[in-house]
Amino acid sequence: MEHNERWAPTSVIAKRVREVRKRRGLTAEDLANRLVEQGIGWQRSTVAKLENGKRENVTVTEWLALAYVLGVAPVHLLVDPNDDEPFQITPEHSESGSTVRAWVRGSSPAQGVDTRTFSAEVPEGEFALRDHFAGRALAAAQSDVERLITRSGFVVEGTEDEFQSALDRARASVERLSAEIDHIAEGHASLAREAQQVKDSNG
Asked: How far apart are CA 31 and CA 42, in angstroms?
């Protein structure tokens, strides 16, 4: 895939910082002051340089601090949640925004990454949740509800069709999750009854 400078990591962070800062009603100086309070020595001009594309790099420390003071998940500054265009992972490799978000969150490997190697570093509890039907239903519901919030205007304006589509998907995902929860509850109740029967027969 051809290199697209627009979607290089620093470019996306700059774009997202500007969007979120304005949505929070903060000036560049306000943002700089918040960063200074967290030990990041930025000035208003530093924020302006980033947002105007005149800063080539953002350190991991700065990226996390920006997300913290703006009140967003770091992944939503690194990868635009409203755009699925190719994102530059390395100078030679790009993938869709949704794929990169899943990779950054630890949900699935990027293309070309060995699945076994990737899974070996996933904490056991997370791996079990991801592999369980209810865990996958929960992840799908979270993703679709996020998309619904985005289309509803809390994050960005969307068309009526986009909102209705997101609403339908969110409802369907929540219904699937509810069905999985009911299934787990029924299974637990069945096991409890069997345990009681065994206890009664031994009593």
From this structure: 9
